[in-house]
Structure formats: C-alpha cells, structure tokens
Amino acid sequence: MTGFVSRLDAQWVPCYPVLINAFDPNSAVSGIWLLWGHVTKGVIYPYVKNADIYICPSDRRGREKKLSYSMNAVASYIPEPVVERPAEFIQLIDEGETLNDGYFYAIAGNQFVDCPSIVHSNGANFQFFDGHSKWIRARHTAQQARIGQCLDTVPKHYFCPKVPFPESRMYGAACQSAP
Is residue 165 in some structural domain? Predict the structure, then answer.
C-alpha cells in the first residue's frame, strides 16, 4: 500500500490471535489474546466503556473469547476522507464462530481469508461506514467457513473504500468495479 500507514496505537482491538488454531472453532482461546488483546485495550473502548457490546449474544463462545465482531482490515488503516462510498463500505463484521483475530481479511487471491458468521438465520450482520447495519444471507456452510470457502457470500466491493482502489495489492483486483 502506498500513502496509508497502519498505526498500532489506533486499532479497533489489538490484532492478536483469539484462538490458538484459527480454523478450529473449538480451539482454546489464546493466552496472548487474553493478556494483551482484550477489547479494553482497543482505541474506542474509552468511549464505549462496556466490553459486553463486543459480544454477540448468539455467539456460543463469545463470553470466553470476549469478542464476536471483526473490523474490515482495510478500514483499520485508511483515513476517513478516502472512503468515497460510506453506505457500501463494510466496517464491522459479525464473524462469531470463525473469529480468529478481530480483523476481517475479506479477499486473498480467489478466496476469502475470513468468513462471516452464519448463526443469524444462516446469515450475518454487517455494519457499514455510514453507521447503518444490514443482514446478509450466507452462501456457505459452517464447514466451508472453517476453511475459508465463503467467497460469494458478500459482494467484494463492500470491502473497498473506493472503486477503483489501486493502492491495495490484496484488494485491488476486487475493487475495480461495483455493480
């Protein structure tokens, strides 16, 4: 990326592994996450002052992990003025069972790295940059989510702050056009 700088002191939640084995939803919670990555260490916690809002009531391991939602990884390092499409740019994703670090990397080559939750009537809730939320039906099973096979669940352009987005090597190809 050119022109954008990631600031570790300005993260949604510290980016540490939540589960020891990211592809096993029954894996133990990482000790590193519990010590250093807790939501109270994130940049918005001083304003929120309530760790429970980071946990989806439907996430069966939410209390143990202390986190159910992930931030669009692109949204963590871009200045607000770069977002040209706030109503079509996902900021927070209900990742639930497949949550592994608090950051949602949507696109990596021809597959998603992370998959949205499917606990809400086979879909997930997404919060957009302009503040509105939307439920999107999943097109993958829980088993597919565990191995990153959820490519067509969410339109790729929802992860692009602008179209085109040539500054991103990872997202550039997916951000060439929007329907």
Answer: no
